[in-house]
Amino acid sequence: MKPVLEIEDLSTHFFTEHGEVKAVDRVSLSINEGETVCIVGESGCGKSVTAMSIMGLVEEPAGKVVGGVIRFEGDNLLKLSKNEQRTIRGNDISIIFQEPMSSLNPVLTIGQQLMEPLMEHLKLSRKEAHLRAIELIEMVDIPRPEQIAGCYPHELSGGMLQRIMIAIAISCNPRLLIADEPTTALDVTIQAQILDKLAQIKSDSNMSILLITHDLGVVAEMADHVVVMYSGKVVETGGVVELFEKPLHPYTQGLLRSKPVINQRQEQLYSIPGQVPNPLELNEQSCYFYERCEHRKAICNTKQPLLQEEPGNQKVACWLYGKAGEAS
Ligand SMILES: Nc1ncnc2c1ncn2[C@@H]1O[C@H](COP(=O)(O)OP(=O)(O)OP(=O)(O)O)[C@@H](O)[C@H]1O
Ligand SMILES: [Mg+2]
Questions:
Q1: pLDDT digit string (tens) for 252-275?
Q2: How many CB atoms within 10 Å of residue 280?
Q3: Is the whole model's pTM more than 0.90, yes or no?
Q4: Ligand 1 atom closest to Cα of 214?
């Protein structure tokens, strides 16, 4: 399968008055054509900053992508001119956030907001864009599309707005859709409908999806491949079946222990004792999960384990396995 997006050693840091936060620390991941990859992990582990880095949304000087490669269909986005980056990020990669209201313009109608990217990126005429906007509203299963096109965001429910966000995100036929907690703010039934819609659009178009969630039920249902993050680092990756059947990292094991049943969502995820370390006080001589780990050994507090390949196409960064950290 062909990779659409390949991230290698991506590091994104923020420079705060209290010190430097390594929000994303040498993260590598890859998404193949037509594949859904889920990033999962506790609040603050760097999921959104990874997405923002791909989209070029990290604002300097507060934050900066300080290293790595973000290769989209072969081109390193970080090496392209601003204009070239904008074209790719407008046409080929799009993003949906958790809060649709914050992405929509309150003073423009839904129709206008759907038409804008169609005219700008696909160069459709006003009339063509209008027709396409109506089709897109239909595509996300909203009845009376003509009427909805004339509505302002505040006139629609949260679930409808999130459908509109999906319609906008897919309007230019992106190769990659990034969805950052797209259903967290919605109730469970609507959540299921939206995820089904995403899955259907994906299978109809062979688009790839990078889905960010803290809900392992969503992961079980949507993912082909899973990336588990902890404190800015990838601690485990693998196929969804392998990872759910045989989680290797004690952190992944902890996540799954609080979520024993596949294909069933739940609100409350974590029962792992302790807390994520303060990002300003990370001990780089130690595994970041050390303090919370049931299986910790002396070595875990002296050297950070590196991500390494394990049988079954899984990768794990943990001293319990193979030759972790040898090359660091
Ligand atoms: N603008 C910013 N300035 C300073 N630090 C930031 C900024 N944005 C993010 N961070 C820090 O980067 C780290 C990663 O944040 P991120 O938003 O990626 O977490 P997340 O995994 O998406 O969490 P959540 O599940 O809560 O959305 C956190 O420690 C956060 O405080
Ligand atoms: Mg986030």
A1: 999 998 765 545 555 554 578 899
A2: 11
A3: yes
A4: 25
Residue 322 backbone class (left: φ over 0; alpha: ψ -120 to 50; beta: rest):
left
183 by DSSP, 3-state: which?
A: coil
Three-class secondary structure of residue 261 per DSSP: coil
Average pLDDT estimate for 153-160 = 95
Query: Could you give the CA distance from residue 150 to residue 32 in angstroms, rounded to a whole number?
Result: 38
Ligand 1: residue whose CA is nearest its atom 11? 23
DSSP strands (E only) in 192-323 = 208-213, 225-230, 233-239, 308-310, 314-316
What CA–CA distance (Å, rounded) separates 132 from 216? 35
- Ligand 1 pocket, CB under 6 A: 14, 16, 21, 23, 41, 43-49, 62-63, 214, 279
> For 172-195, what is each residue's pLDDT tens digit?
999 999 999 999 888 889 889 999
Ligand nearest to the CA of 39: 1
Q: Which residue is closest in CA terms to ligand 1's atom 31?
A: 44
CA of 100 to the centre of ligand 1 (A): 19
Atom 13, ligand 1: which residue's CA is nearest? 23
Cβ-based neighbour number of residue 328 at 10 Å = 8
Cα within 13 Å of Cα(284), Cβ side: 7
Is the confidence at residue 283, as pLDDT, over 90? yes
Closest ligand to residue 47's CA: 1
CA distance 162 to 96: 8
Task: Please choose, from the candidates 133, 139, 95, the residue with its C-alpha nearest in 3D space to the C-alpha of residue 117.
Answer: 133
The string of DSSP letters for 45-104 reads SSHHHHHHHHHT-PPTTTEEEEEEEEEETTEEGGGS-HHHHHHHHHHTEEEE-S-HHHHS
